Amino acid sequence: MAPPARILASLLAAAAVSLAACGGGDDRSPSTTSGTRSPATTGTTATTTAPTTTPPATPATQRTTIYLTRGEQVAAVGRDVPATPAVAGAALRALLAGPTAAERAAGFGSQVPAGTELRGLTIRDGLATVDLTRGFESGGGSLSMTLRVAQVVHTLTGFATVRRVAFRLDGRPVAAIGGEGVVVDPPVDRASFEGSAPQILVESPLPGDAARPPLRVRGTANTFEATFVVDILGPGGKRLARKVVTATSGSGTRGTFDVSVPFAAPAPGTALTLYAFEPSAKDGSALHEVRIGLRAG
User: Fold this and answer.
1) What b/e sequence results for 172-191 when a residue is b if at least 16 CB atoms lie within 10 Å of its CB, and e otherwise?
2) Whether the predicted pLDDT of 38 surpasses 50
């Protein structure tokens, strides 16, 4: 018979083995358990995270073109208007607001009476119907009345969706504007105001734009044999580039042009001038000169 001490030791050892096999031990939560804990699971579990896509930022403004006056003709300038699908209406409101102080100092003006408001604008099947307040036809003689209508027509027909313009004043259709009777019925287009446009109408770049080579120059022209010259001038009038341009038509019929002019770019911010003119067939002198101030981009 084994001694009592040896029997007791055997019983205690057997109990310890039994507890280990059954998972006995400390039942405290992991957050209060001292020592190093083993991972809860063995092996590796792959975690897939869906890529996040950041939508492109919506611009607060968009660039458009309005037509002011310079001398006795219309001239294109740029405007940053609130970003909106109704950009033609925004362009008209910018036109009615008139030239900036800098534009006035540069010789731009407007024949649209101050205080004229846009009451409505619809565009359908190439026809824009614009409704202005009655003050639009107040004051001014025949030249002023013709130019203000031409400003509106050129601004609206600058959009690809507009070919002709009909006018309303205070909600009522009108056949003529002002006491001088500028006829607007049937609806009018740019050709109705050919005399209000310069022989060379540059519509891009616009005054103050950044110029980078090659400079894209586009617009309309009505010159002898459809030909004219575009120069890019640097400080002191130094010629950086010259391009002889041929529009799609001329000699009494207005055509379009769209050309690229390579030039050696000066330091960013340098003042540049786009100078366009028609060489005289008689003596080569410059006719129908256009100067647009730019800056090197």
Assistant:
1) eebeebbeeebebeebbbbe
2) no
> Residue 146 pLDDT more than 80?
yes
Per-position DSSP letters for 128-184, written without gaps between them: EEEEE-GGGG-S--HHHHHHHHHHHHHHHHTSTT-SEEEEEETTEE-SEETTTTEE-
Give the rounded percent of residues in the chain with a pLDDT score beyond 90. 78
Going by CATH, does the domain composed of 200-296 fall within 3.40.50.80?
no
Asked if residue 66 has pLDDT above 60, the reply is yes
- What is the rounded (10 degree) CA torsion for 278, 279, 281, 285? 120
Q: What is the largest CA-CA distance in the chain?
A: 143
Q: Output the CA–CA distances (angstroms, integers) from residue 194 to 29, 140, 146, in the order listed.
A: 89, 20, 11
Class of residue 221 by CB neighbours under 10 A (exposed 0-12, middle 13-18, buried 19+) = buried
Which residue, among 285, 218, 207, has the nearest Cα to 255 in the 3D structure? 218
Expressed in percent and rounded to 5, the helix, strand and coil fractions of the chain are: 25, 35, 40
DSSP string, 21-71: HTT-S----GGG--SPPPPSSSS------PPP-PPPPPPSEEEEEEEEEET
Q: For 124-128, what is the mean pLDDT? A: 98
Task: Return the CA Rg of the chain.
Answer: 38
**Domains of the chain, residue spans:** 61-196, 200-296
pLDDT at 182 over 80: yes
Amino acid at 59: P
Residues 213, 265: Cα–Cα separation, whole Å: 6
In this prediction, residue 179 carries a pLDDT of 77
pLDDT tens digit sequence for 18-27: 333 334 333 3
pLDDT score for 51: 56
Decide: residue 1, CB within 10 A, 0-12 exposed, 13-18 middle, 19+ buried: exposed
Q: Are 222 and 194 in contact (CB under 8 A)?
A: yes
